[in-house]
Amino acid sequence: MDTLEHESAVIATGASWADTPLPQRAMLQYEVEQFLYAEAALLDARRYRNWLGLVADDIEYWMPLRRTVTNSDLDREFTKLGEIALFDDDHMYLEMRVKKLEAGSAWSEDPPSRSRHFVSNVRILDVAGDEITLEACFHLYRSRLESDVDNWIGRRVDVLRRTGESFRIAKRHLFLDHTVIQSTNMSTIF
Amino acid sequence: MADGTQHAQAWDSASLQALFDPATGWLDRRVLTDEGIYQLELERIFARGWNFMCHESQLKAPGEYLVSYIGEDQVIVVRDEDGQVNAMLNTCRHRGNALCRAEQGRAKSFVCSYHGWNYALDGRLIGVPGQNTFYHGDLDRSQLGLARVRLESYLGFYFATPADDAPSLHDFLGETGRAGIGMICAHGEVEVVEGVQKNVIDCNWKIAVDNIFDWYHVPYSHASANTAGFFEIAKIQQPKNQLVVLGEYGHAIGGPGIPQDAQAEIDRMSDDERAAASRAAPQFSPKIRPREATELMGRAGVRSEGHPNIFPNLWITISGSQICLRLPRGPSHTELWWFTLAPKAAPPEAKREIVRRINHVFGPAGLLEQDDGENWSQSTRAARGVVGRQLGLNLQMGLGRDKMVTNDGGEHYIEGLISEHGQRWLYRAWTEWMAARDWADLKANHSLPPTGIV
What is the spatial distance between Cα A52 and Cα B340, in angstroms, rounded to a whole number? Predict the structure, then answer.
């Protein structure tokens, strides 16, 4: 994928993938979507430890900042890897987030949030060896306490790595459609 | 700023002073929710004081600009063709539209999207469509430049005020404010890492500010970050080695401090020895400051490993590697802006490690900060209840138990256990800013740091 990652890949790339016969592509699409839905269900069910089991040891889990910029400054719309980000996690940090949620003293999640992870517009962009690069839209709805509501919406690029019958998430780059975050916190996993 | 509003009538000086009693530590809960108090804060605190805008490294080239705030007034801060940095209100002199809708960017001039009025990077009105036809040449462009506000910098940190009668930034900051900024620069030149995290918390801005001095909440509020292995509270909190430094106009530093005997040992070390000791220290220990840091921070200030606040709303944290603005958005909302400063000289890998670590501390997804917002928003919410708000808020910890020391450098500080001296100083200054009609009144009627038992 030689397109700038933060720009939606309008046309799926990867010549070999595009040339793959439709039945195979449809099968893989089905497998990938079912995996993403199952993953979302784990998060919605607050089964964070199980979710961590789907995460590859070398995961790059990243959500850059987005800025309100003019058309002429779009190259500065997102921060880049190595700059300030909302999430800049490897496996160790994701495990810390899970441990925090399990600690019994994560007050921002006790009472726990009610969340619903929607994944849509899934498009496989490339298949290289055992790695599948896909783009999807996400909508994470969270309601908290009596009346707090958060909607985080955006695009993401995932790399799934095949492990036998399932996958591991090797990369998740999340590009929010928000600049100033209208939320007290982001104590959830995307 | 102009007074005479309904709010000034509803809240006269005596009733404002009565909102906080420094002798008992009781704070009236209405300071968190009252719309009239909030409107007066915009006039008497934000439009009167020096507001942090940005660091010089954020505006490298001519034409680079960003939009910041004085209270709820948007301010364009821009480097012009001569390299000069200017600050002016982001509002067209014709019909008030915003010139900049982006939060940052590059511009050759600022053109209003409403009717096309065009302003130079120094705010001069340089173009008005139809000025000779529709305006018949009657428009005096020289009187219609963007409203400039005073802009001054200290160690590369720019602050702005619309108040012509305000003291210089240097004098406003005083020893304590300068020590706070000195903390950021104590290890050498810094630059802002690209990206300012911004999020809104449903709390009054002051509760986010007073929390800066609150080292009592750390083990409880942030217990889960400790359990998760992110940091060791026991190593950071230092409940018995607290150092609170108070300065005029509400500036203060609160939190852990290096005890005098430990500092005496540091004072005997060369800079090389300090650097070596810092490298050998456990991970995430604050780095020992070099000799010249004492010049920047003062002999008491240099011992602080806590949190300076530049009154009203600029928090300096993590030994100066992050600063946070708490911007008022009505009595019940606060926008937090996190700026990250990294040493200019740090090699890329070291910088990457600093940034990765910092990305996990504060900000909405930060392992620490996740748990702060809801405490503040629920405290603010409770103040809306007419019954509960009569109960007041208690800030009595350590009251009458500590001794104020003034050293020959003119620093005023308290050493001892965790306390609420910093919070009391903040609210005492706040009532004085609110009660004063103008800078002359504030200069004449603000508290100097107390002496003796406090």
Answer: 30
Partner A contacted by B229 (CB < 8 A): yes
Domain interval for residue B184: 26-41+178-453
Nearest residue to A178 (alpha-carbon basis) of B198, B267, B360, B123? B198
Q: With an 8 Å Cβ cutoff, is B128 touching chain A?
A: no
C-alpha to C-alpha distance for A127 and A133, rounded to whole angstroms: 6
Number of domains in chain A: 1
Q: For residue A110, what is the nearest residue in chain B, using CA coordinates?
A: B371
Q: Which residues does chain B have within 8 Å of residue A148's beta carbon, measured at their own beta carbons?
A: 202
The CATH number covering residue A35 comes to 3.10.450.50
Which of A76, A79, A184 minimises the CB distance to B201? A184
> B355 and B284 share a domain?
yes
Per-chain mean pLDDT for chain B? 96
Longest alpha-carbon distance in chain B: 77
B225 contact residues in A (CB cutoff 8 A):
100
Q: Give the CATH number, domain containing residue B133.
A: 2.102.10.10
Of B195, B356, B375, the CB nearest to A65: B195
Whether B202 contacts chain A with CB within 8 A = yes
Q: Residue A187: list chain B partners with CB under 8 A.
A: 365, 370-371
The answer to the question of residue A147 being in a domain is: yes
B102 and A69 in contact by Cβ < 8 A?
yes
pLDDT in tens, B13-48: 999 999 999 999 999 999 999 999 999 999 999 999
Of B195, B199, B224, Cβ closest to residue A79: B195
Say if residue B36 is in the same domain as residue B70.
no
Same domain, B182 and B139: no
pLDDT at A168 over 60: yes
Nearest CA-CA distance, residue A98 and chain B, Å: 8
Tell me, yes or no, whether B134 and B217 share the same domain.
no
Report yes or no on A34 lying in a domain: yes
Confidence check: pLDDT of B273 > 90: yes
Has residue B332 been placed in a domain? yes
Q: Domain boundary at B110, B139, B154, which? A: B154
Neighbours of B351 (CB within 10 A): 18
- Domain count for chain B, please give it: 2
pLDDT in tens, B290-309: 999 999 999 999 999 999 99
Q: What is the ipTM of this complex?
A: 0.95
Cβ of B365 within 8 Å of Cβ of A185? The answer is yes
Q: Are residues B352 and B308 in the same domain?
A: yes
Asked if B99 is an interface residue toward chain A (Cβ–Cβ < 8 A), one would say no
What predicted TM-score, i.e. pTM, was given to this entire model?
A: 0.96
Cβ pair A108:B371 closer than 8 A:
yes
